[in-house]
Specification:
This protein is α+β, with helices and mostly antiparallel strands. The chain has 3 helices and 9 strands. The strands form 2 sheets. Strands 1-2-7-3-6-5 form a 6-stranded mixed beta barrel. β4 and β5 (about 70-85) form a beta hairpin.
Length: about 140
């Protein structure tokens, strides 16, 4: 299977809450739209530090991860809304190094009930659920 790339919109969800409370203007909400590699071996949505900084995300914690190059420490950040193909979900993100492109991990796909179609090399609604967004609660 080749490389699957999808456009993803990432919004600082804390900004959204502040705009809803009229603490800031809606046009001040920090957001980016980027191309990301779909990597079912990755866990989170992973973003380069420059994108995390542009979004102004609050640090959550550092975690140890395993990569193809060995173990590493990565930082996670709270409060993003991830929008992919008309579906959205609020979760934390992980910071990559600057040289690594944005990655869409399996938690994003699971949360939005998407799968990767190897024939079309695209993210599609889960055919097991007739394309309807279904959340598994087990």
């Amino acid at each position: 299977m080749g490389r699957v790339i999808e456009k993803v919109k990432v919004t600082n969800y804390l900004d959204v809450g502040m705009a809803q409370k009229k603490i800031m203007n809606k046009n001040e909400i920090r957001k980016v739209e980027i191309d990301a590699i779909v990597d079912t071996g990755a866990t989170y949505l992973c973003l380069p530090p420059s994108v995390v900084s542009k979004l102004g995300l609050p640090f959550h914690k550092s975690v140890q991860i395993k990569t193809a190059n060995g173990r590493a420490i990565r930082r996670t950040y709270k409060g993003v809304e991830i929008e992919l193909k008309g579906r959205s979900f609020v979760m934390e993100v992980m910071e990559n190094d600057e040289e690594t492109p944005a990655l869409i991990g399996y938690l994003v796909l699971e949360a939005m009930d998407f799968v990767v179609d190897p024939k079309t090399q695209a993210v599609i609604p889960n055919p097991a659920n007739d394309g309807k967004w279904t959340a598994d609660l087990y």
